[in-house]
Amino acid sequence: MPYQDDFEKRRRERRRRARRRKKRIRAAILLVALIGVIALGVFAISTIAKNRSESDDITSDTDDNTISETMLPEPTQAPPAQTSLNIPPASEEADLIEIIADSNQIKRCYLTFDDGPTDNITPQILDVLRRYNIKATFFEVGSMIEANPDMARRVYEEGHLIANHSAGHNYDKVYASTEDFINEINNCFDTIRGVMDGEDPFPLFRFPGGSYNAGDHAEMKQECKNVLAQNGYYYCDWNCLNGDAEGRTKDAQGLYEYFVNTSEGYNNLIVLMHDAATKQATADALPSIIDYLINQGYTFHRLDDIDYNPTGIDASGDTSSFDDESSDEDVSPGSVSASGASNSGSSGSSGGSSNGGTTNGGSSSSSSGTTSGGSSNGSANSSLGTTTRTSVNGNSTVTTNSSSNN
Ligand SMILES: [Zn+2]
Question: How far apart, in whole angstroms, are the C-alpha atoms of residue 111 and residue 130?
Fold first, then answer.
């Protein structure tokens, strides 16, 4: 019996152990499940948190982008020299000399150099301009830029305006048809844009040979003016010149005298010169021409720097939309209008007026030309001290005004 009891005891003991083992296994399974659930929970929470922080990063990135995007374009799209440019669109008035004539600005000089850049003359001209701290306009030819890219680059980097003077300066090609014409302009535009690191150049063209309605290609040139306006392009001739491409070859003194003669009597000056390879005398004459103009009270500007402030007195009456700043000049509107109109007339053998006198120039100068000459003469004298040249110039202002506008 004790053997049986013993057997019974061991059996109970085995059952108890088996039960305990089952319990432990269950507890272990439960524990593993619990750990699993906790682990899953922690993983889920951390993933959500991570996602949230990543999406925060993205939104803050885009916030940054929108800030930098709204801040960046202004300086890149509007270079400093063009911010002051508040002139009529080319579709309304493509002739920049007309716009300057209507501007009411006083005694501004626009030095312009055509047909370059060249590796021998352009650097000399740039050196002179730098010495005087003067900015000018270079009407460059596409093929010349391609031949002298470093020089074009220097013109740009030293703050001058590069404008369009066709791709190849071959009259028969440029004026073969309006399609050829616009192709020449677009090709040159692209070449200039390359010089300017991809920045769009100011849309300004100078007709090779001038836009004048005379001589070869005269008819096509007039058609081309419409093409320019339709494409948002301004064009600009000149109203005085040093004669470096006229008649007999002149030395520096000859160019200086030619310039003085052709510039007398104008309020604003658009000066034609050339930085082509053979124009050594142009570089030599430049300092004396600049000294003369400084002495006359002129300031120097690029052609995309026009202080456009029409008075609204003009017969057209549609100028008020551009009248953003009140005129602070102490010159009467009539006199300013008359002196401005003197620009529309041109002088010099190749500088014959393109459109003849404009309606504006013709009427206002005949009525108020005398007062204009008087007042501008007076201010020039008072600021510069009276010199014989100034008074001669002042007197001739009146006569030149009335004659050149007819
Ligand atoms: Zn030319």
Answer: 13
Gap from CA of 276 to ligand 1 centroid (Å):
9
The CATH topology of domain 95-404 is TIM Barrel (3.20.20)
Query: What's the gap in Å between 146 CA and the centre of ligand 1?
Result: 16
Compute the distance from residue 151 Cα to the ligand 1 centre, in Å: 18
Check whether the bond before 73 is cis (ω within 30° of 0): no
Q: What is the domain partition of the chain in residue ranges?
A: 95-404
The string of pLDDT tens digits covering residues 382-402 is: 222 222 222 323 333 222 333
Q: What is the DSSP letter of 385?
A: -
74 Cα to the center of ligand 1, angstroms: 34
Write the pLDDT tens digit of every residue in 199-219: 999 999 999 999 998 888 999
Centre of ligand 1 from the C-alpha of residue 273, in Å? 9
Cβ atoms of 235 and 219 within 8 Å: the answer is no
Q: Which residues pair with 235 in a beta bridge?
A: 95, 205
Q: How far apart are CA 401 and CA 385, in angstroms?
A: 23
